[in-house]
Amino acid sequence: MADTIPNPDGELFVDGRWIPSSAREAIDVEDPATRAAVGRVAVATDEDVDAAIEAAGRTWTAWRETSPHERTAIIMRAAQLLRDRAVPIAEAMTRENGKPYGDSLDEVAYTADIMDSLATEAPRRFGQVLPTAASDGRTMVVSEPVGPVAAFTTWNYPLTVPGRKVAAALAAGCTVVIKPAEETPASAVALAHAFADAGLPDGVLNMVFGDPGRISSRLIASPVIRKVSFTGSTPVGVLLAKQAAEVAKPAMLELGGHAPVIVFDDVDVDAVAQQALGAKIHNTGQSCGSPIRFYVHEDVYERFVERFGELLAAVPVADGFAEGVGMGPLANARRFAAMASIVEDAVAHGARLVTGGAGDDATGYYWQPTLLADVPEDAVVMNEEPFGPIAAVSSFRDEADVIERANRLPFGLGAYLFTGSAERALRIPGRLDVGMVSVNRFGVGARDTFFGGRKSSGYGSEGGPEAVEEYLVRKLIVQS
Questions:
Q1: Residues 248-305: pLDDT tens digits?
Q2: Which of 15, 89, 390, 453 could staple 435 via S-S, CB 3.0–4.6 A?
Q3: Distances from the Cα of 308 to the Cαs of 257, 266, 294, 344, in angstroms?
Q4: Cα 184 from Cα 90, distance rounded (Å)
């Protein structure tokens, strides 16, 4: 039936062939709400990886010559299948990732919308005809698919991140070998099923799981693979970029962030605090665009801290399937340990713990939404991405000073600005050294917009027409 996932097992998908976890060494998949094993994911052998590479290389010529309109149709059929199967996909996502079930349903719908948008870019790859000195000649610049792509994705948005990478690459005419996160395989497997059922030719999309270091090294070193696309932490992204550079291979990186929030004294403080609540607890703070450093004008500082703290303290933290849940558990034990260390460090540096600051990992990785006030710039939370439900607040008075503080880190993904001044709203975004700025609202990017950063937050775009451009190369053709 259209509203079911053909097989929720953590399968490999190689050259159109499904390899179940029972056929390979397998890894347990843990439910972060209960710490119980809820599934298994197959570990690809070297032979599996090589077969996936070979399939991507063998099918590339036919796929790049497939009509762009047919590529669009296949991607859009896959997107619709995700919508048809939203309930079982969302259930699996919450079970593996911990996010509230309603958020999982939203992620399925959002991913399908992104795929539709990227699909429509396939026929829009335009070139140029250039004027020449010779009357009997013609000079053209055309766009062509770069070739087979190796893609690596993380666990925090287990459908959106794989979905937009695969859709953009396929729309451009590239074939793909993707390695999603082993902690949240079900969403990616459902994506592969959707493409297979939508009529994507065997071998155009391949999916492997297993040891990240071994698989990434093998994929990047292969001469068949022409480009690397990675979403994840900055240290891992830098490592993969080095490996790609050693074989003169381009890479596209969407890495960590440390989003500053600048709140001026001409805003409705309660309204900003209410918006901040939703942005901070979304995905349990495990998002590269999550607001972290709140720089609040001193004239409204205490009011903001008080109201934001009240709102965070009232958030119901529970299993993602619980009725009325506001925030689910952290995704894994690593994030739980990191939260404790970050809070301890901030308090040791003189920060004031307003609310939260503790958790319970006896049955799941539950951490209370945490607000730290009066946080000095040398605390860990002000310098390293917490990737969890921790917000750090500090006051400012001078505009030039707060912009310098917002820009001081090597991260440059997103930033947020709240002000009642139209002049300031137009002027300050140009002074923030990030790839994306959101004014008087939280959230960066949309289904059809650029999404990317600069500095240590990476380079390239995961969204909009620019995402498809990432998988194209230019060719000059001179005719006489």
A1: 999 999 999 999 999 999 999 999 999 999 999 999 999 999 999 999 999 999 999 9
A2: 453
A3: 22, 17, 11, 21
A4: 12
Measured between alpha carbons, how far is 230 from 288 in angstroms, rounded to an integer? 14
**H or E, element range at 243:** helix 234-246
Alpha-carbon distance 112 to 103, whole Å? Answer: 14
- Domain 12-255+457-479 sits in CATH at 3.40.605.10
Give me the residue spans of the domains in the chain. 12-255+457-479, 259-446
Q: Which two tokens stand for residue 424?
A: 């300031």
Task: Name beta bridge partners: 130.
Answer: 139
Query: From the candidates 254, 385, 462, 470, which is the catalytic residue?
Result: 254
The single residue of 288, 385, 462, 470 carrying the catalytic annotation is: 288
The CATH number given to 259-446 is: 3.40.309.10
Mark whether 288 is an active-site residue: yes
Q: Is 462 a catalytic residue?
A: no
pTM for the full predicted model: 0.95
